[in-house]
Amino acid sequence: MSLILTMVAAVLLDAWLGEPERFHPLVAFGRLARGIESRLYGDRRSVGVLAWCVAVLPIVAVVSVSVVAAPWLRFMLDTIVLYLAIGLRSLGEHAMPVAQALHEGNLVEARAAVGRMVSRDTDVLDASHVAAAASESVLENGNDAVFGALFWFVLLGAPGAVLYRLANTLDAMWGYRTSRYVRFGWMAARMDDVINFLPARLTALSYVLVGDAQRGWRCWRDQAPAWDSPNAGPVMAAGAGALGVQLGGDAPYDGVWERRPALGEGDPPGADTIVRALHLVRRAVVLWLLGVLALSWLWPGGLHA
């Protein structure tokens, strides 16, 4: 039962405190990664593999020491690590200002707020595109900032959650198909794809189960294969379908409107869509906690203590 207790404690701690305001370990890790990049950078995959290993593996090894700690100390360490690895409250803190601005008809403020969530050109977005961008971000980051860490924590404990968050962070820093990172960042991009493969599909399934199941499953099945990202596609298609809303479609990046497949079906997005997307993620978190609780009862010796 210590597994589910740790997960509940971490989720409650996140709801209470949110992300640390003055110091977050991922911020420090970002500085470390930039330092490693400046010293090791080379336009070769092998160099990128070395940089990834130097950045991630020593930290995971240090966290792994917690598995031999006394039970009460391990519970505390695991709770703190998982709390720092998830960002459920931060989803709302980023998304709700967008919804509030749209409710008030303040498109300028809504664009500014969504610009803190997405990388597209927000200054040319109309209200519907702003709502779509924020909703897509909430759905996708439900996996990246919550369920991915929960999955790897269930599987490997605190080291798994740390491995996931560090790999996810390096993908955000190095996993671009630019001239600088296409080879150096290959390892970061591929590792993020690999470690997100199962969590993304479990996230998509969770959205289907706590939303409009028929639409969610149909959109996941029909629309996800057309999306560039093998993991974001299932998550956002299933989420949009579960919400019964139209997302996806063309979006502006670096001054050019890029063609993107449609996601979901139903009503066009609005301010309420953002709020509903947050509620969908939160219901899915409850579903995961209940699922782990059931596994703990049915298989008491099969989940890590």
Automatic annotation (TrEMBL):
The keyword Transmembrane helix applies. It is a multi-pass membrane protein. InterPro entries: Cobalamin_biosynth_CobD/CbiB. Pathway: Cofactor biosynthesis; adenosylcobalamin biosynthesis. GO terms for biological process: cobalamin biosynthetic process. It is found in: Cell membrane. Its main location: membrane. This is Cobalamin biosynthesis protein CobD.
